Amino acid sequence: MPTAHRVVIAVFPDVDLLDVTGPAEVFALANRETAGRAGYEVRLAGSAAGAVRTSAGVRLLTDVAFADVGAEVDTLLVPGAVDMAEDGPVARIDEEVVAWVRETAPHARRVASVCVGAHLLAAAGLLDGRTATTHWSTAAQLAADHPRVTVDPDPIFVRTDHGRLWTGAGISACLDLALALVAEDLGEQTALAVARQLVMYLKRQGGQSQFSVPLSRPAAGRREIDELRLWIADHPDADLSAPALAARMCLSERHFARVFKQETGTSPAAYVEAVRVELARRLLETTDCPLDQVAGTSGLGSAETLHRAFRRQLATTPAAYRRRFRTQTV
């Protein structure tokens, strides 16, 4: 009798190690948390049985050759690999993997890509006419190479085709994608139990951004601006007005505003609001605090200001955001 959840992960030379081992660990922990009832059986498939060298130099042993996988595949998981060019990483297209994915995908209950594995799904024609995500650094390449694919570089993962097709963002987001697959199979509480075992700060939902506010901005050329950005993040409820920040930097308000925008690409007020909205988002996702309290803790002051900031930053309301992304606790 076939295993309830037979997961087949493609491996090939220079595949990203975490893209393979991260999801595999999530499925293994799901088995452990359910005393084996989850029924996940993970198999690594490659061009032939044997060792495959990953991008980290660690070698993986395949369980089965592509030609011998067969039709009994519950979840087909496709990781990625990159080559480095002068202007950044370029997703590698392994034609053997593409051909195998094209042949195997119709037999699988669902297909998911991890990180730049989305480029392989696109090359196989699986993403035409659909929305997909990938690692932010190769999103432009995916859009240019596959104009029939709507590329959204921001989400952690995208679920399309009535849950049959998933694409995930970069590197550590493979854990979020795998947890979402577990939640679909076994329920949210099992997925949260696995997240706790992984000591993850939060099991993120698919529509959330790949970036926190500090990560979404390039490092400043001036160290004192980077230090100020960190201080802002640590003190969201402080006086973060332009005059107060300028005084902290020992600069005139006008000069400070000019330097800050030159280094960060945004105004001090816009940056502060983005930081405070990010904190408010986390509070809405993880607590039942009333909106007035969320606004006060995040430095936005009042529910009215919170509402206006969410409209500007996220084009939604705090209540709607909480309904969509609130993480239920056991």
TrEMBL record:
One of its GO terms (molecular function) is sequence-specific DNA binding. SUPFAM superfamilies: Class I glutamine amidotransferase-like (SSF52317), Homeodomain-like (SSF46689). It holds the Pfam family DJ-1_PfpI. Coiled coil: none annotated. Keywords: Transcription, Transcription regulation. The keyword Secreted does not apply. PROSITE patterns: HTH_ARAC_FAMILY_2. It comes from the Bacteria. Residues 226-324 form the HTH araC/xylS-type domain. Signal peptide: none annotated. This is Transcriptional regulator. The lineage of its organism: Bacteria, Bacillati, Actinomycetota, Actinomycetes, Kitasatosporales.
